[in-house]
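Notes from the 1:1 (GR / supervisor)

We went over the backlog. Supervisor wanted to see one worked example end to end before approving the batch request, so GR pasted a single chain during the call. The sequence is below; no edits were made to it. Supervisor asked that the structure be written out right there so they could see what the output format looks like.
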Amino acid sequence: MLNPWEEILLDDYEKHMQLDTVMQLQAMNKMMKGQLGAYSVSSVMILGIAGGNGLEHIRKNKYRRVYGIDVNSSYLKEAARRYPDLAGILKCLCFDLTRDAGKLPEADLLIANLLIEYIGYECFQEAILHVNPNYVSCIIQININNNWVSDSPYLHTFDGLEKIYAQIEERPLEILMNKTGYNKIKTLKHLLPDGKKLVQMDFERGRGFDETVHSRSGISL
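Structure output shown during the call:
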């Protein structure tokens, strides 16, 4: 059975996200620049990379490996096509994180922007346990009036996502990360034109995390 994201055209997704009434593509590009530059790391994994928005901020003198993960193989092909200068650094991997989290390689920094909503807390936790990053930086969307997709001519493009979407909240995410061995070190908020908010939450691995990873014990929220 196809993941709903496999049926959404990248062009439709990006045109919706960059509308003046939405402005999420632009906001996340700016926020990703900060995510990529904030920490002393040499490898990064970007979950839900789509067409590679923000990859222009990769500094090749800093990063030796960039992993781009997405469930849609056509997104990954386009991301690689758009950034030929990252050849040899960017490695695109087509995984459905709801069943392939155990296949993820390790990386120093894990970025997940508007991704947790579509895989859930437990699956995100499983991904973290396998990637074993020093830092995790994620962006979640805070909605208004239960309207999780902004109004636009492309609105019905996303109808299929309703069956896998779930609202993610700041406090439960922080609790999950604490139980997984990470402490929150930063919160940034960006207000969108339609009243929604993008909330960036950054976490650093705490003492004792290695034992948690090696045991792969089931940690529940």
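Supervisor's comment: Strands lie at 43-47, 65-70, 90-94, 109-113, 135-142, 182-191, 197-205.
Batch request approved.
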